[in-house]
Amino acid sequence: MLGLIIVLLVVGLIAGALARLLVPGRDPIGIGGTILIGVVGSFVGGFLGYVLFHHDKGEGALQPSGILGSIIGAVIVLLIYRSMSGRGHRFGRTW
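Structure (tokenized):
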């Protein structure tokens, strides 16, 4: 169980960091936020992979396609986070 949590955090950190590199702009989140975006992105990517390709855990939990799906999911989560936090939109005063 502890090994699964460590792998989840490491993959989350990698996926979140790569998502932040791929999506232009600054995000005022720390390493914890980056890991959270990566972990949630892993679940989103895994869900999308299952819906599109109908693969399951029987083919192996850690695969290159799974890591790629985690990165794509993290990019999606980061874009949703930005749109919900209001970043990138300037209402009211313009400086």
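The two ends are 51 Å apart (CA to CA). The CA atoms of residues 89 and 95 lie 13 Å apart.
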